[in-house]
Write a structure and sequence with these properties.
Rossmann fold, seven-stranded mixed beta sheet, 7 strands, protein-lysine N-methyltransferase activity, nucleic acid binding, Efm5/EEF1AKMT1
Length: 210
Amino acid sequence: DDDDIPQLSSHTLAALQEFYLEQQQREGMKTSQEFNQYSIGSIEEDWQLSQFWYSDETASRLANEAVTAAGKGGRIACVSAPSVYQKLKEHSSEDFSVCILEYDRRFSVYGEEFIFYDYNHPLNLPASLQPHSFDIVVADPPYLSEECLQKTAETIKYLTKGKILLCTGAVMEEQAAKHLGVKICKFIPKHSRNLANEFRCYVNYASGLD
């Protein structure tokens, strides 16, 4: 009897259709020639991994700052900061090199520039990453805890020749100074989705973010 067949409400059906349409559009973008694998959002946020992508404007500002700080022929490491890495790759014609250290293996699509990274093992890094071999390290620890910052700081200090650009919550200002000797900048980074926690940038050099 047709009366026994469960029916979706019109509201639920419309929401489901909208979801499938968005999914089809995303898949269509990924197969089109115009799709840019380095664009922010090409790999979707995974909130379970505490991933929140920067706005396009913020990613551009931080990428430009990293390029300027690294200098001609400079090397840039992005530690848990994939939005900055992606924006840097949009400027790949410029004279610098960059790698991404990230826990999320979806970013392995970026080939040899991807390095698997777990902040719980801060110095478990491939031999190809020589100590103090990067002109600047851009880092965004995934969690607002002193333990996460302290362990990520070990990685940062191992990699950098000196310059550090840290992005984390305003509540971490004291710990950032303690573990990395960085000071808060005037520039306020924004995310593509609004976060409940106030977010800030910190540096240990004269930057263009003030």
